[in-house]
Structures are given as C-alpha cells and as structure tokens.
UniProtKB/TrEMBL annotation:
Entries under SUPFAM superfamilies matching the protein: ClpP/crotonase
Name of the molecule in the record: Methylglutaconyl-CoA hydratase
InterPro entries attached to this UniProt entry: ClpP/crotonase-like_dom_sf, Enoyl-CoA_hydra/iso, Enoyl-CoA_hydra_C, Enoyl-CoA_Hydratase/Isomerase
GO molecular function: catalytic activity
Ranges annotated as spanning the membrane: none
Leader sequence segment: none
Amino acid sequence: MADELVHYEVRRGIATITLDSPHNRNALSSQLRRELKEHLSTAAKDDQVRVVVLTHTGSVFCSGMDLKEAAGASAGDQGVNEFPAILEQLWTSPKPVVAALKGPARAGGVGIVAACDISIAANEATFAFSEVRIGVVPAVISVTVLPRLLPRQAHELFLTGETFDAQRAKEIGLLNAATDDVDAEVRRYTDMLALGAPNALAATKEMLQQERSTNLGEVFADMLKLSAQHFGGPEGQEGITAFKEKRKPSWVPAEN
C-alpha cells in the first residue's frame, strides 16, 4: 500500500490536514485527491472539530493537477473531473477552513486557496494561473476564485498566467494575510474562530454563499427569519446568558 500523502490530526478542536507529497510539489494526484476528500469528510462529520487548517510539507503548497497523470488521458479520464467535489467540500464545509501556505500555489492549488474561508501565506509565497501557458483553461477553479478576485485583476492574471506575490494576492482578495510568521497568524485566526458557536458558524457560512435577490424586502425577510431562529435557539440563548454572566460560552474550547 502506498504511503499516505495527506495526514490528519485533531488537537484542541482543530483538525489539521497536511498535504505531504513534496516529491511532486503536492500535485493533485489521484491518491492525494482521494485522501484529501476523505479527511475533509471526516472533519465535517466530527462534532469535536471546530476549525480545519489545510497546510503542507515541502516548499510548495500545491502545484495543481498532476500533469504526469494527465498526459495521454482522454477528457473523460482526466483527474480534473474529480476536482470540483474537493472545492465544493472546502467551500461548503460547516467548519471554517483556514489555508496555511509557506510556499507557492499554482493553478488548482490557487483554486483550493480561494475555496477556503481564510487563507494565509508567507510573504515569499507566489501564485499563478498557469493554465493558459500549457494550453488549458482555468475553468473549474474559476468557480471559487472569481468570487474572491477583483474583476479587472482576474482578467489580467487568468489571461497572462503571470506570477504574482503574496502581497498582491492579498490586495486583490485571494488572501486574508501575507506574513513573515504563518504559524502565529494561523493561531490568531483559529483562536478567534473557536470563539464562534458551531451551528452559528455553519449557518453564517451558508448565508454568505447565498445569491441575493434584488428585492430588499425578500432579503430582509429571509435574514430576519435566520436571525430570529438563532437568537431564540440554544446557542443564541447560551451566548446571551454567558455574556450576562461575564463568562465564556460553553462551546469555547478549554485552555488545556
């Protein structure tokens, strides 16, 4: 049996999923895709998991689809056919997902970065939509990338395939933070996310992903219903009581 290419660990409510295929720059091979999907499913179903961190070993976060596997395969046999399911898992995960990059991301790897709720990269990390330079189209990743990027920047970077740095990635909306200390910034975000009530976080993610009607009356009616459900629900009542009693809500993980 091949060695595991994606590792899974849970500590203090944080599930860390680590891409560990440095020999091919963490390319999205069939084995890596399969294991990543399995671990994301495990994290989503585990009530003890509050936040998911997606990180990597080696110098590259993810180089995109495994081109060695893609060579010679027909359209129906391409691994990219399985990729939308992974991006959808990340995008719709009921648990917030934080991407932690200490190295470059390319093509499908950038799609993964965009699919995560929060993405943090080292200042030296670089990015590129390199698809057009090898004769393919960044079609699948556009579903998660385009909602993040400024439109003018998306046109430029998708069409040119130009490499850009972490600071620009932050400026155009792909990253939340570019930093010299990725681990510290990840901890800062996971500590904040752990303060949120699990059901409230899941509902907030779902709300953020909804397409809005142009009818403000309909939007307000839908949002009022959602708000009232959570104000009157068990988490809302616990949070209000904890605030009044000047204590942490029951869902906040213990310090030990």
